[in-house]
Amino acid sequence: MKGSEGLLATAAAAGVDVCFANPGTTEIPLVEAFDQVPEVRAVLGLSEGVVTGAADGYGRMTGRPALTLLHLGPGFANGIANLHNARRARTPIVNLIGEHASWHQSADAPLHSDIESLAKPVSGWVGRTSSAAAASGEFAEAYLAALRNHSPATLIAAADHMWSQGGVPATAPAAPQRPQGDEQQIAEVAKVLAAGRRPVLLLGGQVVESPEGIRTAVRIAAAAGGAVLAERGSARVERGPGIPPVPVLPYFPEAVTEALQGYSDLVLVGARTPVSFFGYKGQPSHPLPSGMAVHELADSDADALHALAALAERTGSAAEEPPHAERPEVVAPAGPLDADAIAAAIVLTQPENSIIVNEGVSSSASYPAIADAAPAHCELSQTGGAIGMGMPVATGAAIARPDRPVINLQADGSAAYTVQALWTQARESLNVTTVICSNSRYRILDHELQRAGIDDPGAAAASMTSLADPAVDWLSVARGFGVEAVRVTTGEDLLKALGRAHGEHGPHLVEAVL
Amino acid sequence: MKGSEGLLATAAAAGVDVCFANPGTTEIPLVEAFDQVPEVRAVLGLSEGVVTGAADGYGRMTGRPALTLLHLGPGFANGIANLHNARRARTPIVNLIGEHASWHQSADAPLHSDIESLAKPVSGWVGRTSSAAAASGEFAEAYLAALRNHSPATLIAAADHMWSQGGVPATAPAAPQRPQGDEQQIAEVAKVLAAGRRPVLLLGGQVVESPEGIRTAVRIAAAAGGAVLAERGSARVERGPGIPPVPVLPYFPEAVTEALQGYSDLVLVGARTPVSFFGYKGQPSHPLPSGMAVHELADSDADALHALAALAERTGSAAEEPPHAERPEVVAPAGPLDADAIAAAIVLTQPENSIIVNEGVSSSASYPAIADAAPAHCELSQTGGAIGMGMPVATGAAIARPDRPVINLQADGSAAYTVQALWTQARESLNVTTVICSNSRYRILDHELQRAGIDDPGAAAASMTSLADPAVDWLSVARGFGVEAVRVTTGEDLLKALGRAHGEHGPHLVEAVL
């Protein structure tokens, strides 16, 4: 058995069933092994940003690592941006990077580079194979690290270790358990909630992925006379008729401070202390109202759901009914489109159990603001700010859950980064409907210029935010990559186009012109 | 004056006239400054692979650094693959990475990452700004490092250093001179050439960029009873009626050994000792015939042209006529297309002074094999093996030399990496004609599977080399990004399509179906 087969058999035994790949010469032994280990399905992406973003989408939907197969340092580098987002989403992924044969690495061949230096910023674990026999054990270590660290782990596999005989499957590693929350932390939070002040629970991570977790948090907050909010940029948020609405923190720091105003204590439940996305003149990094005390229910690696259940017991709110919450009313959009109209059209047409992948950027906030009116669904959002995640994450989510429709609310500027993902959607006949918010601008940069006091930018600055000359023809691009596409300019037509797309198998793209 | 204006004014004073950019929020102060310092023209790319590849193409054509403007670690990461190629091409580039405000960096905001770790593998110099006042001097340091190291240099500019007042333009740095070659090394090579053995001069770097350098090398070799070869993957090779043909070393190691067989001594003239692109079972890293002695005329940073001229003096070959060399005869292609037919069509139609950007991958070798039949031109090739360089490098070369037609011989698999470059070609009305070698395969991987002994790959392995289902419709993709396109399947039609493209202003794409 070759080293590559031993490694892949170990992956299969651990339950890995998908490898998103863009292989080159150094990965040929692993490419061969796909036919020996059919439990691992290889899915090709036309560039590595697609590959790593798809692995992120897969991992967010399953909690299990997909493999990626990437070509040396430069191939890996193309996937770093979406691994950055995956790291922020706390998604387990195992990257396999094919490396030159061990004896060839010192020759400084053209593709040689310092792979560790590239990998470390986006990997909780980085290692190298040491032989054909040891490679499967080294894979098992990477696999466990990805689960334990909730992060990409990167194994650099020398071509000769992969092509040589002597591979042996290692014992399949069992998924590690999250450590339970610290009783003292829980007790302290219980004391805060009992103090008769006005606390707010900030939910994130595991908690917003769990309908029961959300309900528990809402009960606890109600009993304490407080409220709940969700942190921005969650990997996955569950919503639906049985789940209480949880408003999401806004984007700009002034608005975050305002949203938290009037609360006495901030209780982090699977969330981090809010941090401003960027540093702005005169704004603090952590935009909290002055005097607000911050408490953490459980460490970031601990089981926040368990801690939350324990907190509910302590505060006597375990058995209470969550308070009734109004759901937004959504009116069918008519006439010219804007971000709100697009969000409304999605909410009104999305099938039960849809997966919403939201990389709307300047149009992103419109959807979660009304999404509690939609049927049961989950939303995967921008976690790390590296644009170009939407189409790849949608692709991976659809591979992970072929039984669920995927809807990708997608800004046009970001779409242009990784539009190649449409080809994988076509090749794999994935049920992904992409809605391009086509404003032919980097609209967010217009806002940022205004914030910097530039209301009337000069021609050079203005040209850096415009995608209008020429406007990208998204229909042509989509068809070029094999995906059916239509263009709409009104709410009425958008509703019709979405209805049609959801009724047909396979990928669709709707260019919604703003 | 803001820090950003001081920095950009320093760049302008040093002669920087182009900044390839894909800015985000942390680069807003530099975006604003483009209107204050109009000497630096900002050129937008839809993704950072376009931006850095364009800077490589610009630098290869001018010898001067262009700026890139990139957004934090993830934005930079998207540009690493083409910076890897630039490093191998020894292209000077100055990367400006906008970083969070200095006081915001410790907050671990979503886009925060270890930028240095990402930058070091592709940068000869990495630094950070320290204040608005110091930033221009720090830029000057980066600029000089790019020229001195023949490599990208990366300056990480904190947003607050850029937006704060207190910027001052620094003294414009003067371009450093290359050190002269070592007299003793030159004398030793002269002795080798006088020994009556059969030497071969391997040309690369500066030497193949210089018609006079090539002529001198050919004279020296002829006088010594030897020959000349060019290393593979040169940044720029000049060719034309007045320049003697220099065969290029082949790709696979067995063929390299065969090409060098029968020569006694290998003299490196601006080139490196040949290294196998990948490590193969039973093949050495350096595929030289046994017993071949290797001599270096000048260190890699030294002035190889000066050393060559000195060598010509010493060997008494300075005044000789270069021996007459036959030029290939090229027959007009007819009927179905293959790689040779595409190369022939390009050679027969390319206008005088064309710039050929060759990322043909499995079709790459056909062009240089017959290019000595073409009018005067230069060829920029794949230096580092990170695919996706062709379209961006062609874009940057056209920005650098608007007076010269650019022809991009482009593999389809690689084109899919950075096809967004077409948009910049359309936006800037660049005279680039892209010829897609459309075989709907990663053909090079088919070869590599065969070399690994897999003549009949299984379905899973075969699917990793096929781009056929669906085949990318390059006409639609090109039109989507604003570029006129036609599809041809015969030599006759390809000749016509190229003739038409060269006769019209602006970018064109020809999909040549193999």
From TrEMBL, chains A, B:
This protein's record includes keyword Aminoacyl-tRNA synthetase: no
Domain of life from the UniProt record: Bacteria
InterPro entries from the UniProt entry: DHS-like_NAD/FAD-binding_dom, THDP-binding, Thiamin_PyroP_enz_TPP-bd_dom, TPP_enz, TPP_enzyme_TPP-bd
GO molecular function, one term: magnesium ion binding
The Thiamine pyrophosphate enzyme TPP-binding domain, residue ranges: 375-511
Record key words, sorted: Thiamine pyrophosphate
UniProt domain Thiamine pyrophosphate enzyme N-terminal TPP-binding: residue ranges: 1-107
Listed SUPFAM superfamilies: DHS-like NAD/FAD-binding domain, Thiamin diphosphate-binding fold (THDP-binding)
CDD domains in the cross-refs: TPP_BFDC (cd02002), TPP_PYR_POX_like (cd07035)
Recorded family membership: Belongs to the TPP enzyme family.
Protein name: Acetolactate synthase large subunit
